[in-house]
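Colleagues,

For the teaching module next term, I've prepared a clean inverse folding example: a structure given as tokens, and then the sequence designed for it. I'd like students to try predicting residues themselves before seeing the answer, so please don't circulate the second half yet.
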């Protein structure tokens, strides 16, 4: 594996003492992490109804740090620009920490914007075209701060599904910037302010970059993902998580199994931008399963180090998930359904 995430999680670059951790020790470290909030149904935001409020924790105050090209893959918490395995990583002090990754082959910038308690929304900017988009804005304020600080205008809002922690900022951002709201055709009646509805196989032009849409029902009946091959990136919402997948609120195991197959078919070096920091609790579940593979053990060690330093585990990559995510390893719908049921009650 030669992708950024693969390099970061490779046991070859881990400190020698980290390899001495046993499965039992890692389980102990992970045991303090709460299970994901999707164990309870999320409120829905319908057009014309803002829905119940979701408590907000301001992302910038959480001090998220960034990975740099250090032997352990951990940040040095300094403001600098480094090149890591062909990817430009612009790091900042923890007080304003957000990640910006610009692929060397393109000008597309993807910035991780923490929102609420554990959500990741994303800001995409094509500087050549002067086009900017927000992906699943859980709340408006973090985006307003970034946009105003850089003198940018928001052109588009891209939603993957209707849950409030993915569309909570739609109406305020649309009203303020006149942004066009894009979302799933299959769930258009539950996307606040939607202007453009897209379905499986549709493409969307974001400046000089083409995004392909795939229907991925399972978490909800109208979920979509956005794949941008020129940036080697896919925005998966709550369909796939690092070491996990979305809970089945409205879909069936067969639907989710088929939806995940679409992500599995993408190039292995595709960076996966999932919408929650659930990786540590997901790792705890994975380690509870029999026959823990060495690659998963090594990854769990690195995840513990990253989260202990308040560093995001997103993005991951398709290849890394294929190698370590049990939900992508399931060979049949029945096997996947059993695994999902076990996770629901974990």
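(Answer key — instructors only)
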């Amino acid at each position: 594996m030669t992708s950024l995430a693969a390099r970061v999680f490779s046991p070859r670059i881990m400190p020698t003492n980290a390899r001495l951790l046993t499965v039992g020790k890692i389980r102990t470290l992970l045991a303090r992490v709460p299970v994901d909030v999707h164990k309870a149904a999320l409120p829905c935001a319908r057009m014309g109804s803002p829905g119940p409020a979701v408590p907000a924790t301001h992302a910038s105050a959480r001090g998220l740090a960034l990975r740099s090209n250090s032997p352990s893959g951990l940040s040095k918490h300094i403001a600098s620009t480094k090149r890591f395995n062909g990817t430009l990583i612009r790091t900042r002090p923890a007080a304003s920490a957000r990640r910006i990754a610009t692929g060397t082959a393109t000008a597309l910038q993807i910035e991780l914007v923490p929102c609420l308690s554990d959500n990741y929304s994303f800001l995409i900017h094509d500087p050549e075209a002067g086009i900017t988009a927000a992906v699943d804005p859980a709340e408006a304020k973090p985006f307003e701060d970034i946009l105003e600080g850089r003198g940018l205008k928001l052109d588009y809002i891209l939603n993957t599904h209707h849950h409030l922690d993915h569309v909570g900022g739609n109406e305020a951002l649309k009203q303020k910037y006149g942004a066009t709201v894009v979302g799933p055709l299959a769930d258009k009646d539950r996307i606040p302010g939607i202007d453009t509805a897209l379905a499986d196989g549709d493409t969307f032009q974001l400046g000089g970059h083409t995004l392909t849409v795939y229907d991925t029902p399972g978490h909800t009946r109208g979920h979509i993902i956005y794949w941008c091959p020129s940036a080697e990136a896919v925005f998966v919402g709550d369909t796939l998580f690092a070491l996990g997948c979305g809970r089945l609120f409205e879909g069936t195991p067969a639907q989710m199994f088929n939806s995940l197959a679409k992500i599995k078919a993408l190039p292995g070096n595709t960076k996966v931008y999932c919408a929650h920091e659930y990786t540590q609790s997901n790792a705890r579940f994975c380690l509870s399963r029999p026959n823990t593979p060495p690659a998963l053990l090594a990854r769990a060690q690195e995840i513990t180090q990253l989260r202990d330093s308040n560093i995001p585990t997103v993005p991951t990559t398709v290849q890394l998930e294929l190698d370590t995510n049990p939900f992508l390893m399931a060979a049949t719908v029945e096997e996947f359904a059993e695994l999902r049921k076990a996770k629901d009650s974990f």
